[in-house]
């Protein structure tokens, strides 16, 4: 018996907000690169490089939302919901690669710090804070429950904080001439990017490996299953995710030698409990009599 989970597809307004964020970010990247070269500012160039990955992240995110709306078929029985997880994995991995380049360039500039045009750094950095904040707010809706949108949102939030750091560095350089602050801020930006990236990367890999969702307590779930009237045992129990919203469960349920209609009542009670207590809404249950072979609770 199965019970389907109601899955909310992204609305057209979500796609429009992503496209608008992409265009705004792309235009500003061009401005920031030109300003960074003119001002000899690694912080600005670092932020521009990060914003380029944001352009790609937003484009991939939009594509994944579009693909996820395609219906499943004989070749893709689960549909295309994993596209968003793949994009989240690509986004987080690309950020980690960018950070390596940032660290390398920052070390070079610590050794030989160039003169930074502080006024340009402050002006462009302040504009970047506004642009990144606007685009982050455009993408924010839905990011709480969708890992794909969350990866794009964290890209943009990281930009807000990193550009704010560049502005602060520019102000200090303007009054002190401490040009080494520019690569120092770049190092902090890189660490911030890594910190934001790890959670998305880890969650993406866990979903792709079909790991048990982090907030599902398997011991408590087993206890609740055994607490349903008529259930004598459970084995071959599996819980996994298709994406950050869609959870699936399959299990073999041991019962007495009962009629089909009695078994249906047990299945219905199990599905209701799993949805209400564990947010698992797509359930596949195989009922067996207690004399059947038991392959272990988590057997393959």
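Sequence proposed for the structure above (300 residues):
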């Amino acid at each position: 018996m199965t019970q389907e989970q109601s899955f909310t597809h992204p609305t057209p307004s979500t796609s429009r907000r992503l496209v608008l964020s992409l265009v705004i970010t792309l235009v500003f990247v061009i401005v920031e690169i030109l300003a960074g070269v003119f001002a000899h500012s690694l912080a600005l160039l670092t932020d521009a490089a990060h914003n380029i990955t944001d352009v790609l992240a937003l484009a991939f995110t939009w594509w994944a939302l579009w693909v996820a709306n395609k219906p499943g078929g004989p070749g893709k029985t689960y549909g295309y919901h994993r596209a968003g997880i793949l994009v989240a994995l690509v986004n987080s991995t690309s950020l980690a690669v960018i950070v390596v380049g940032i660290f390398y360039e920052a070390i070079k500039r610590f050794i030989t710090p160039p003169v930074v045009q502080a006024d340009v750094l402050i002006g462009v950095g302040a504009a970047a804070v506004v642009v990144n904040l606007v685009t982050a707010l455009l993408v924010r809706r839905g990011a709480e429950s969708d890992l794909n949108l969350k990866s794009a949102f964290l890209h943009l939030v990281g930009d807000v904080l990193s550009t704010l750091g560049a502005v602060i560095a520019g102000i200090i350089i303007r009054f002190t001439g401490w040009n080494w602050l520019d690569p120092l801020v770049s190092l902090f930006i890189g660490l911030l990017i890594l910190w934001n990236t790890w959670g998305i990367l880890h969650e993406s890999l866990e979903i792709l490996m079909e790991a048990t969702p982090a907030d599902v307590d398997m011991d408590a779930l087993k206890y609740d299953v055994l607490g349903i009237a008529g259930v004598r045992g459970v084995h071959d129990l599996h819980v996994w995710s298709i994406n950050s919203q869609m959870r699936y469960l399959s299990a073999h349920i041991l019962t007495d030698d009962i009629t089909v209609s009695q078994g249906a009542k047990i299945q219905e009670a199990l599905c209701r409990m799993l949805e209400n207590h564990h947010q698992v809404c797509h359930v596949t249950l195989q009922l067996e009599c207690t004399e059947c072979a038991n392959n272990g609770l988590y057997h393959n």
